[in-house]
Specification:
- It contains nine helices and eight strands.
- With about 240 residues, the protein is of the alpha/beta class.
- It has a domain of about 160 residues: Uracil-DNA Glycosylase, subunit E (3-Layer(aba) Sandwich), CATH 3.40.470.
- The strands form two sheets. It has a six-stranded mixed beta sheet, with helices on both faces.
- β7 and β8 form a beta hairpin.
- The longest helix has 22 residues.
- The radius of gyration is 21 Å and the shape is globular.
- It starts with a helix and ends with a helix.
- The N terminus is likely disordered.
Length: about 240
């Protein structure tokens, strides 16, 4: 009996050692679980197996493209999911697509997007090195500010998107993104120029590029916020 127990213990120890050696060389994986609301209002729960960030983003983007969770789905040309590099240093999150974004399916490609590109360049980064998205994935009619119902319908997608992107730092652009990430309905002036956290990810709040185009005096304030991000990136190495 003692011999049999010893043999079983030796086999188990060998299996555990083999498993430890194998998992050391596997890429990080995440599970995928979310509910999808279709255009006809029906809801489907989808749970997939372990996925890496690229596959997870592809699955999530497909789910977003078929979403009918709020009234914005009826008027969109297409959804605007986001673009950029997973595992990036900085993820920029705005409020919602505009007309140019709705037409192209890409975030921040209009005048506000061109200013954002210059802001990113001033940070010694490129657009391709960052990830750019919006809280709301469909264009509100007339580019009005998304209402709470529309914002809340998109929050599960944004949460999963952030999880998959896993940025080092988030920059919330404008009041809608700031309120969504902080959970506080306050003005930008009260939320900016300080660090907040989304889970374990630090983030700052600053003015939306469209607001900077309307009021040039705020550009200096926005630059102060971005300098905080640059300093944090250097600190994180």
């Amino acid at each position: 009996m003692k011999t049999l127990v010893s043999e079983i213990s030796a086999v188990l120890e060998g299996l555990l050692a083999e498993e430890s050696l194998t998992t050391d060389y596997l890429p990080p994986i995440r599970s995928m679980s979310s509910d999808v609301i279709h255009m006809d209002g029906t809801q489907e729960s989808r749970i997939a197996g372990p996925v890496d960030s690229k596959v997870g983003l592809e699955v999530l983007q497909k789910q977003v493209s078929g979403c009918g969770g709020c009234d914005l789905a009826r008027g969109r040309t297409q959804t605007v999911f986001g673009e950029g590099a997973a595992g990036c240093g900085v993820m920029f999150i705005g409020e919602a697509p505009g007309a140019e974004e709705d037409a192209t399916g890409r975030p921040f490609v209009g005048p506000a997007g061109q200013l954002l590109d210059r802001m990113i360049k001033a940070m010694n980064l490129t657009r391709e090195e960052c990830y750019i998205a919006n809280v709301v994935k469909c264009r509100p009619p007339g580019n009005v500010t998304p209402n709470p119902t529309q914002t809340e319908a998109c929050m599960p997608y944004l949460r999963r998107q952030i999880e998959l992107i896993a940025p080092e730092i988030i920059v919330a652009l404008g009041r809608v993104a700031a309120n969504a990430l902080t959970g506080r309905v306050e003005a930008i002036a009260r939320l900016r120029h300080q660090w907040h956290t989304w889970g374990d990810i630090p983030f700052v709040v600053t003015y939306h590029p469209a607001a900077l185009l309307r009021d040039q005096s705020r550009k200096k304030l926005a630059w102060e916020d971005l300098k905080m991000v640059m300093a944090k990136l250097r600190q994180l190495g």
